[in-house]
Design a protein that fits this description.
heterodimer; A: alpha+beta; v583 fold; Enterococcus faecalis V583 fold; 3 domains; four-stranded antiparallel sheet; about 20% strand; B: alpha/beta; Alpha-Beta Plaits; Rossmann fold; five-stranded parallel sheet; 18 strands; about 40% helix; globular; Protein FdrA (chain B); EC 6.2.1.5 (chain B)
Chain lengths: ~475, ~525
């Protein structure tokens, strides 16, 4: 609009800075908006320089982000079956374990992850005692690799061993796959580092009865539309990370008739359905790989500053960005702030753990908190706080989800496509809804709450993006 | 003595709010030193200067609250008051924080805009201004401390996009009848203004209003626009915009001394505009000649008079000082009362007064004197005839502008009145949007106190002379402000020129009287 045109138009002012200027214009009845301005990147000159450098190729970045967001939006994951990890997961060799989060060695692993590693070694029969298993793990006898580097994800410790059964998720739009183990339930479970006989027995039962039964049932379906289920669960009070009650219920409704139709022993069907029914989080191990399948479709888009993975190994937080492909940006993981179960104190908590923040990366979890007001009781907060968090996340995302919508926000799509630039510039970190693991192996979940990623991950990613120019 | 330093991470507030809060907290009972500010390197230095012992680390988005007081109670009370002040000062009616956009781009997604008013700290301002221009927004850049190189780059970008880049350090504009930042409520009319000076634009627009005419547009350029490096980009674009504007019949340019080549360009642009125009060059030593199309005015009052006449209105002539009244004031002075102390909040009003006073009284001392010989070694101490712009950077470090916060001016009035050599204290009182909501209300008690202390407490007869720069439409209520000052014994004038000439008259008469 030229100066001359401005003279013929009503002024509409955006005020950055002194609030009284805003008040004066408001008093005059002018359309005016106050920007809640802060120094960019906390006033850090290096970060501002990186942002400026990316500005010089703004059109390329915008094109990259548009493409990455388009892929993420168009991806459509289906549950197509169940198989064995070693047959399906690329690069998973023998005497190799996948884990949650960015790369980590045995010596840096936290208690619950070490416990889960020991459990998986015993489960595979690579060692006969916990002591031997520990010796094996600590002496280089086991290769460790992040699940994320093998098209897989796992909650908490996220351990995947070769003979574990895994869900097969297929992104039918782009053709890529994602894998995840089956959820074991709460309490003393492998993902929290428990490796007692009961834990191993349950895992054996899951591999020998549950997985084959579900596999047979799924063969009777055309594949289950997970994206559709996840869209529905947001309308039923779940946010897809820490609350999966309705997702699990919806899955139960779909799988029950299929199990009955499949040629299975009635007692097998009963045990399978009871197992799914008893675990509100059964669906988490489906929503996570569904998110992974969608985000992997956006990975590697040149110049894109959108986040494709956020994950924790209990020691470090790791970030991956579309424009830098498989590269990790890591920093020490934070502790979760929230409510602890009776009998536990803050000293019992492990740092942030698990691949489950893949849900937030995809616009669910903390980003969809407004859809799940009931969750706030669990993570310690108020219903209006849930709305605020969801609102706030729009400040750091590229777009709004076309499929995941929030009734309480007039069916607005969830904030989706975290932009590293906006996180650093505005100093607004993603909010993650998550469980708290006990710092010692095998105790289990001790609480739940909210956690933010370390800003350093985003700063490192931003510097790396700027260096690519 | 009790000391307390709190660092609140990620609680950003703008500097004006913080400076006001800091000042108020400092004045609380039992508080010896206080700083409420962001963790900038400057503020960390200030903490050391204030002798705070505790070592802290804080970033640009972290709020530092440092208090030292008599005891725990005083410190705790100050802390509570500070929070209350932060709520009043910082939160405007602009809605819940989580709903407010955090960047310009987000704001534009919520609401259409055509002008960005930017007053963030200077180091960050160019980046925000550039973003606004890239979003095709006109920009009023209130921020100062922007480099000349950034100014040139921004103005070139604005020019290529046919956008306004008013500033940096642009305090006043009136666009489409809307006063922006520090500006008065004046009639709409046919006179268009382009000004390199904020208070210059305020004074001219106020005088035009007083004479019954109005302003079509008032465009600010920032004080450096006529610098050789900038080349008058915004001045020339402003003149061109007014040339094309069908509402504008007369063009007024309030300029500062310009590089000769730039001055020539401005004069040519005015001559070729096809519209009658008035040119006022502040701080000029004369030598600018007008022509058939361009009338040159000596001061801001004359600028308004000529513009009003060109617009077909009747200018109010300057009232010559009433000699009997002058003699009345002068004869009440004691022989040692010989000097004026001017305490201004408007830079151009200050310059204009200095020019008038120096013509009659000779050398005028100042922090920014017209004659280098008048440089005050210590601006905090006046000497003989001293006239100060308290809005100058020297006085505004860590303090809001005197148009918003009258604390420094009030202190200085008391000090000057105590000096037995002082005959006249000359003030400007600027009204309008942006300015203090009741400056007269702030000044009156101090003037009364000062009178009691005048001439070394002997109850002498120091004369207060003031100009109130405001209109009937201003939010402060012009008539009420003038009346309050008059009732406190202040001689109030209708223009800055008249106030300065009256002041010069008293001093001339007093000195003449002394010789008799």
């Amino acid at each position: 609009m030229s100066i001359r045109d401005l003279f013929a138009t009503e002024l509409a002012v955006i005020n950055l800075g002194i609030p009284s200027f805003y008040d004066d214009l408001l008093r005059q009845g002018l359309p005016v908006l106050q920007v809640d301005w802060k120094p960019p990147a906390g006033g850090d000159p290096e970060m501002v320089a990186a942002l400026e450098k990316l500005e010089t190729v703004r059109d390329k970045v915008e094109a990259g982000n548009r493409e990455a967001f388009r892929r993420l939006s168009e991806a459509h994951p289906y549950l197509e079956g169940i198989g064995t990890a070693r047959d399906l997961i690329p690069g998973l060799g023998e005497h190799m374990l996948l884990h949650a989060g960015p790369p980590i060695s045995w010596e840096h692993m936290s208690g619950p992850v070490r416990g889960a590693v020991i459990g998986a070694i015993l489960y595979e029969g690579w060692a006969q005692s916990a002591e031997d298993a520990e010796k094996m793990a600590s002496s280089g006898g086991i290769a460790f690799s992040p699940a994320h580097e093998h098209n897989a994800v796992g909650p908490m410790a996220g351990i995947v061993s070769p003979s574990m059964p895994v869900f097969i998720i297929h992104n039918r739009t782009h053709g890529n796959y994602a894998y995840c183990t089956l959820n074991e339930g709460l309490g003393k479970v492998l993902r929290f580092g428990a490796f007692g006989a009961d834990v191993l027995e349950r895992l054996k039962w899951m591999a020998e009865e549950l997985a084959p039964a579900l596999k047979k049932a799924l063969e009777l379906s055309e594949g289950i539309d997970l994206k559709g289920l996840m869209a529905q669960m947001l309308h039923m009070g779940d946010e897809g990370h820490n609350r999966n009650k309705s997702g699990t219920s919806l899955f139960f409704r779909i799988i029950a008739p299929l199990l009955l139709k499949a040629d299975l022993e009635p007692q097998t069907v009963r045990r399978c359905l009871e197992f799914i029914d008893s675990n509100d989080h059964f669906f988490l191990n489906l929503s996570m790989p569904a998110c992974k399948a969608m985000l992997d479709a956006a990975a590697g888009v040149e110049y894109s500053t959108l986040v494709t993975a956020m994950t924790r190994n209990g020691t470090d937080f790791g970030l991956r960005v579309a424009g830098t492909g498989s590269r990790w940006f890591t920093a020490p993981a934070n502790y979760v702030e929230g409510l602890l179960f009776p009998g536990f104190t803050a000293q019992d908590a492990n740092p942030d753990l698990g691949d489950s923040a893949i849900t937030e990366t995809c616009g669910l979890g903390g980003f969809a908190m407004a859809a799940a007001p009931a969750i706030v009781q669990f993570v310690g907060g108020t219903a209006s706080m849930a709305l605020e968090f969801s609102h706030l996340m729009y400040q750091i995302t590229y777009g709004e989800n076309a499929v995941f919508t929030i009734p309480a926000l007039n069916f607005r799509g969830t904030a989706t496509g975290i932009d590293v630039r906006q996180v650093v510039e505005l100093g607004v970190l993603p909010v993650i809804n998550t469980g708290i693991a006990h710092r010692e192996a095998g105790v289990g979940q001790v609480g739940a709450g909210l956690v933010r990623p370390p800003m350093a991950c985003f700063e490192k990613a931003l510097s790396a993006l700027a260096e690519t120019i | 003595m009790k000391e307390k330093i709190i660092v609140q991470a990620n609680r950003y507030a703008d500097s004006v709010t913080l400076m006001l809060v800091s000042q108020r907290v400092q004045q609380l009972p039992g508080i010896e030193a206080a700083l409420v500010g962001m963790g900038s390197p400057l503020n960390l230095d200030v903490l050391q200067t204030l002798d705070f012992q505790e070592e802290i680390s804080a970033g640009a988005n972290d709020l530092i609250i440092a208090l030292r007081g008599r005891d725990d109670d005083a410190v705790q009370n100050a802390l509570d008051q500070m929070e209350a002040l932060m709520r009043v000062q910082g939160t405007s009616s602009s809605g819940q924080a989580e709903e407010r956009p955090k960047s310009l781009v987000q704001a534009l997604a919520k609401q259409k805009g055509n002008l960005a008013l930017i007053s963030v700290p200077g180091v960050y301002a160019p980046r925000e201004a550039r973003k606004a221009l890239e979003q095709n927004l006109h920009v009023m850049l209130f921020s100062d401390n922007v480099s000349l190189a950034d100014e040139v780059e921004l103005k070139k970008l604005a020019h290529s996009r046919e956008l306004l880049l008013m500033g940096p350090d642009c305090g006043t504009a009136i666009l489409n009848g809307v006063p922006l930042a520090f500006a008065n409520v004046v009639r709409r009319g046919v006179i268009g203004i382009v000004a390199a000076s904020g208070t210059g634009a305020q004074e001219v627009s106020v005088q035009i209003d007083r004479m019954g005419q109005g302003v079509s547009q008032a465009i600010g350029t920032g004080g450096r626009d006529l610098h050789e490096a900038v080349g008058g980009i915004m001045m020339l674009d402003g003149i061109e915009a007014l040339r094309q504007d069908p509402e504008t019949k007369v063009i007024v340019v309030v300029s500062k001394p310009a590089a000769p080549a730039v001055a020539a360009k401005v004069l040519r642009a005015l001559s070729e505009s096809g519209k009658p125009s008035v040119l006022c060059v502040i701080e000029s030593k004369g030598g600018i000649r007008g022509n058939a199309e361009v009338t040159v005015a000596r001061n801001l009052l004359e600028t308004a008079q000529k513009a009003v006449q060109l617009a077909g209105g009747a200018a109010i002539p300057q009232k010559s000082a009433d000699q009997a009244e002058i003699y009345g004031f002068a004869s009440a002075l004691r022989p040692e009362q010989k000097y004026v102390r001017g305490l201004f909040s408007g830079g151009t009003l200050c310059d204009e007064a200095m020019a008038i006073l120096s013509e009659k009284l000779g050398l005028i001392y100042s922090y920014g004197p017209l004659d280098p010989a008048g440089q005050l070694p210590d601006p905090n101490k006046s000497f003989q005839n001293t006239v100060l712009d308290l809005g100058d950077d020297f006085f505004t470090v860590g303090r809001p502008h005197p148009m918003i916060d009258l604390t420094l001016r009030k202190q200085r009035i008391i000090e000057e009145a105590k000096d037995p050599e002082v005959a006249v204290i000359l003030l400007d009182v600027v009204l309008g949007y942006g300015a203090h909501p009741d400056p007269a209300g702030e000044l009156v008690p101090v003037l009364v106190e000062a009178r009691g202390k005048a001439a070394g407490g002997s109850g002498g007869s120091v004369v207060f002379v003031a100009y109130v720069c405001g209109t009937a439409g201003d939010p402060q209520d012009y008539n009420k402000q003038v009346k309050a000052l008059q009732e406190a014994g202040v001689r109030v004038f209708a223009s800055n020129v008249e106030a300065a000439e009256f002041t010069a008259g008293i001093l001339e008469a007093a000195q003449g009287g002394g010789q008799r």
